[in-house]
Design goal:
With about 850 residues, the protein is α/β, with parallel strands linked by helices. Among the domains are: about 180 residues, Ribonuclease Inhibitor (Leucine-rich repeat, LRR (right-handed beta-alpha superhelix), Alpha-Beta Horseshoe), CATH 3.80.10; about 220 residues, Ribonuclease Inhibitor (Leucine-rich repeat, LRR (right-handed beta-alpha superhelix), Alpha-Beta Horseshoe), CATH 3.80.10. It is about 10% helix and about 20% strand. It has a 28-stranded mixed beta sheet, covered by helices on one side. The chain starts with a helix and ends with a helix. About 45% of the residues are buried. Bound molecules: 2-acetamido-2-deoxy-beta-D-glucopyranose (11 copies).
């Protein structure tokens, strides 16, 4: 019996041993539980994993995030969005040989992806997306030969993509987006023959899209490489990806043409090639993409006409071909795209009319055709686009009147921009029915008649720009709580300025521009402390009275232009304290008195343009007002006018872009046109040598005052000076030689003073004609006719600091000299025509991205 039982026992023992061996030695539930708890104990906050406990090993398979296989060992570990903070360094992957899924997205894992992950050889799905992992993608990832889904998106991975990843040939979904990965896409990726979804967007990759890549990805349905850093051409092999439903190459440096083979991708629903440098024409084969719902090609250099085949894409909902160089007409067959909700053809060179058929787009919400050469009248049918939210037709050549029903059937219309056309006729009353209107821009047209009072009832309006038309009559009460920008400049509006526009208890006006109208009366008293005005411009009206004291509360003012009115006041002592003021224009009013106001720490600390000309200011020159011009030169600050808006929706998304755009303009105006114009007043005294320290000044006009003394030789230090006018004063002495070193000086007027001696000669000075020097009887040398007698003057070398008291002091007044053409007006116009709409279109772009993301996610 013993001999019989022995082998049996041995067999039994072996059976038991064999069945227990892998579990016991490698991964018993206990070892796994212990390994999990050990890792849990390294986490900063492990409260979501409370069930993970050594006292609770028997419940392993019911622990949070754990799934077991039939053997009772861990097969899946899935912890989403639990706020887990820590690293994977102490996770013992060797303990989990049968783990098929590891998913810990939306946590706070940091550190690198551990080497040991290669020990979890059965992994089919690895998802560590939306954490803070850094370092590289480990190259031994190729040990994960079963891997089908790998998602490492939105971490801080910053290596190149390891070629070994291409050996995980079972991969069908790979997402590495939102990292800082560098280098090219490895050739080995062509091995990923089962890949179906590939996302690499928002990385810093480089190199070209190699044609080989596209030959074997036959199961690819979604390819997202937007903002990845690729350059070169789009290879024609892309046409082999016949299962592709979504292709996004937005925002790379791709060049060359769009390959006609793209027409082979007949499953495509989404095609985004925007924001590249693609050129040539849009291939007609695009008309084959019968399932296309979104076509975005904006911001490229595409030329030629819009292929009529586009009209075959009848499922199209989004079509954006904006910012290209497309020519020709809008195909009239486009009317077949009756599912369109978004149509943007802006910033091209399209001509012809808007096809009547556009009225068929009953779902249309966005229609952007601005900046083309479109002509004709707006057809009534456009009033019947009942879903319309945004209508942008600015800067075309449209004419005729705005359809009389416009606004009546568009309750959702929030943005309307018809500026820069030739629209005529009256303001359509029905627009008052568009109660959702936020942005209304009808500027730069030929519209006339009066503005309906009901406009003031549109209580959602944020931006109203009706400037540069021929509107007359009084202005509606645009005093709703949302109004931020009101520009009615360059019309023929009259009447008093409405009080409510100056009552800052609940309105948040940022820009108020009423210049070039016929408004009368006084500036109403400012009420409330929450004035947020950055621009206040009433230049060229008939405003009288004084400047309201309350304006001192408007600490954000950057532009204050009260010029060309009938304001009678002394210089407001609080003006120099406005910390943001960059442009101050009081020109042509009845200001009087001297400017020796009580000084603050740094008066006018941001000033760039000051125009006090044509008033009756007297006393000494307020030289200390201009200290800012010294500092600007030292630091070369190019601080722009900052009109960042704190208004509702657009703020967050657009600030930086807006500011960037503004800075561009600002360089043109404020940086270049630094100017001081104090001409035609009654200033007396001498011009201090200190003025030479205002090195950033480009225009200085002190003409038509009663200034005495010499022309400061320090002017030679104002190396940027382009225009200098001291004419019609009582200045004496010689013209300092240093002036001839001013390289940019192109306008000079020293006429009608008591200057004497030899006119400096030199390359640059020779270009001024005698008009610059007329009326100074004691000046001699070219270009005036009087010759200098050599013996009458000391040698030139000694000129610099000599006191010329020996000159003849005859007062000669020969009327007005040549007026200086002030650069100010040009620069200023650039600013005032800056369209709020401009930033609105930036927001559109931001919304594109949003829309696309939303679409991608559904
Ligand atoms: C897990 O919990 C469920 C109830 O939630 C229970 O039915 C099951 O028996 C538990 N399994 C183990 C292994 O504890
Ligand atoms: C053990 O795990 C189960 C299942 O997750 C849980 O309901 C229970 O509260 C845990 N017990 C302890 C003592 O943590
Ligand atoms: C990881 O687990 C394996 C198998 O369970 C074990 O042999 C090894 O010692 C563990 N490593 C560490 C560092 O605990
Ligand atoms: C994320 O983890 C880091 C440590 O790696 C920690 O400093 C930070 O506070 C954590 N953040 C959150 C939101 O838990
Ligand atoms: C498993 O991890 C250990 C270190 O813990 C390492 O020495 C070993 O090479 C790894 N095995 C594999 C297959 O990666
Ligand atoms: C896979 O990629 C490697 C590395 O690029 C290459 O050597 C190999 O030939 C490829 N295999 C196949 C089947 O394409
Ligand atoms: C597209 O995918 C299907 C499976 O979804 C597959 O049968 C077919 O072969 C693929 N087409 C191509 C051109 O590879
Ligand atoms: C577009 O559709 C028309 C018929 O509606 C057809 O004649 C034409 O061939 C199509 N063009 C393309 C490029 O598919
Ligand atoms: C418009 O879209 C709907 C559903 O999205 C679809 O059923 C309809 O066929 C489309 N219209 C055309 C003309 O393709
Ligand atoms: C499209 O518009 C044209 C002209 O307005 C009209 O004749 C045609 O019937 C419309 N088609 C549809 C489908 O509404
Ligand atoms: C805005 O105007 C509409 C009608 O034009 C009115 O129903 C609504 O109450 C008003 N909202 C406010 C905040 O005044």
């Amino acid at each position: 019996m013993g001999t019989f039982n022995k082998p049996l026992l041995l067999v039994l023992f072996l059976v038991v041993f064999i069945s227990i061996l892998p579990l016991n030695i490698v991964s018993s539930p206990t070892t796994q539980g212990e390994a999990l708890v050990k890792w849990k104990d390294t986490l900063f906050d492990s409260s979501p994993l409370n069930s993970w406990s050594l006292n609770n090993l028997s419940n392993l398979c019911n622990w949070t995030g754990i799934t077991c296989n039939t053997e009772g060992t861990v097969s899946k570990l899935q912890i989403y969005d639990q706020g887990i903070s820590g690293t994977l360094a102490h996770f013992n992957f060797s303990s989990f040989p049968s783990l098929t899924s590891l998913a810990m997205s939306y946590n706070n894992l940091s550190g690198s992806i551990p080497v040991d992950i290669g020990n979890a050889t059965q992994l089919q799905r690895l998802d560590l997306s939306f954490n803070n992992l850094d370092g590289n993608i480990p190259s031994f990832i190729d040990q994960l030969t079963e891997l089908q889904q790998l998602d490492l998106s939105f971490n801080n991975l910053n290596s190149s993509i390891p070629p070994e990843l291409g050996l995980c040939t079972k991969l069908n979904a790979l997402n590495l987006s939102g990292n800082s990965l560098t280098g090219p896409l490895p050739y080995s990726f062509s091995n990923l023959t089962r890949i179906s979804e590939l996302s690499l967007y928002e990385n810093h990759l480089s190199g070209e899209l190699s044609p080989q890549l596209f030959t074997k990805w036959t199961e690819l349905t979604s390819l997202d490489m937007r903002y990845s850093g690729f350059s070169g051409n789009i290879p024609s092999e892309i046409g082999m990806l016949r299962n592709l439903t979504s292709l996004d190459l937005t925002g790379n440096d791709l060049e060359g043409t769009i390959p006609k083979e793209i027409g082979n991708l007949n499953q495509l629903q989404i095609l985004y090639l925007s924001e590249n440098h693609l050129e040539g024409s849009i291939p007609a084969t695009i008309g084959n993409l019968a399932k296309l719902e979104s076509l975005f090609l904006y911001n490229n250099n595409l030329s030629g006409t819009i292929p009529p085949e586009v009209s075959n894409l009848t499922l199209l909902e989004y079509l954006d071909l904006g910012n290209n160089q497309l020519t020709g007409t809008i195909p009239h067959d486009i009317g077949r795209l009756i599912n369109l909700t978004y149509l943007d053809l802006s910033n091209n060179q399209l001509n012809g009319i808007i096809p009547l058929e556009i009225g068929n787009f009953t779902l249309l919400q966005y229609l952007q055709l601005e900046n083309n050469q479109l002509v004709g009248e707006l057809h009534d049918s456009i009033s019947h686009l009942t879903m319309l939210r945004k209508l942008g037709l600015s800067f075309n050549r449209f004419s005729g009147s705005i359809p009389t029903d416009f606004g009546k059937y568009t309750p959702n219309l929030s943005h309307m921009n018809l500026s820069g056309n030739n629209f005529s006729g009256e303001f359509p009353q029905t627009l008052c029915k568009a109660t959702s209107l936020q942005v209304l821009d009808l500027s730069s047209n030929e519209l006339n008649g009066s503005l309906p009072g009901c406009l003031g009832n549109l209580n959602k309006t944020i931006v109203v720009n009706l400037s540069k038309n021929k509107f007359k009559g009084t202005m509606p009460m645009f005093c709703t709580t949302n109004i931020a920008i009101l520009d009615l400049s360059s019309n023929m509006l009259s009447g008093a300025l409405p009080r409510c526009l100056f009552t800052y208890t609940n309105i948040k006006l940022i820009i108020l521009d009423l210049h070039d109208n016929q408004f009368q009366g006084t500036i109403p008293q400012i009420i409330g402390n929450s004035c947020e005005l950055t621009t206040f411009n009433i230049n060229n009206n008939h405003i009288e009275g004084s400047i309201p004291l309350g304006l001192a509360n408007c600490k954000l003012l950057q532009i204050l232009d009260l010029g060309n009115n009938k304001i009678k006041d002394s210089f407001p002592s609080w003006l120099p304290t406005l910390p943001q003021l960059q442009i101050l224009v009081l020109r042509s009013n009845r200001f009087h008195g001297n400017l020796s106001v009580k000084m603050t720490e740094r008066p006018f600390s941001k000033l760039r343009i000051m125009d006090l000309s044509h008033n009756q200011f007297s006393g000494n020159l307020p030289i200390n007002f201009f200290d800012n011009f010294k500092l600007m030169a030292n630091s070369d600050r190019r601080v722009g006018i900052n009109t960042s808006f704190t208004i509702g929706l657009y703020y967050e998304a657009s600030t930086s872009l807006v500011v960037k755009g503004m800075e561009l303009e600002v360089k043109k105006i404020l940086y270049i046109y630094t100017s001081i114009d104090l001409s035609s007043n009654e200033f007396t005294g001498e011009v201090s040598e200190v003025i030479g320290e205002f090195k950033s000044l480009r225009l200085l006009n002190l003409s038509h005052n009663s200034l005495t003394g010499h022309i400061p030789s320090s002017l030679g230090n104002m190396s940027l000076l382009e225009s200098l006018d001291f004419s019609s004063n009582r200045m004496t002495g010689m013209i300092p030689r240093q002036l001839s070193t001013l390289e940019f000086l192109s306008t000079l007027n020293l006429s009608t003073n008591n200057l004497s001696g030899e006119i400096p000669q030199g390359r640059h000075f020779d270009t001024f004609t005698k008009d610059s020097f007329l009326g100074n009887l004691a000046l001699c040398g070219a270009p005036v006719t009087k010759k200098c007698k050599d013996d009458e003057f000391p040698p030139r070398e000694a000129d610099d600091d000599v006191d010329y008291i020996w000159f003849d002091w005859k007062m000669i007044l020969i009327g007005y000299g040549i007026g200086l053409v002030c650069g100010l007006s040009t620069g200023y116009i650039v600013f005032t025509t800056l369209k709020p709409w401009w930033f609105v279109s930036i927001i559109e772009r931001a919304q594109h991205k949003l829309i696309r993301r939303l679409m991608m996610n559904t």
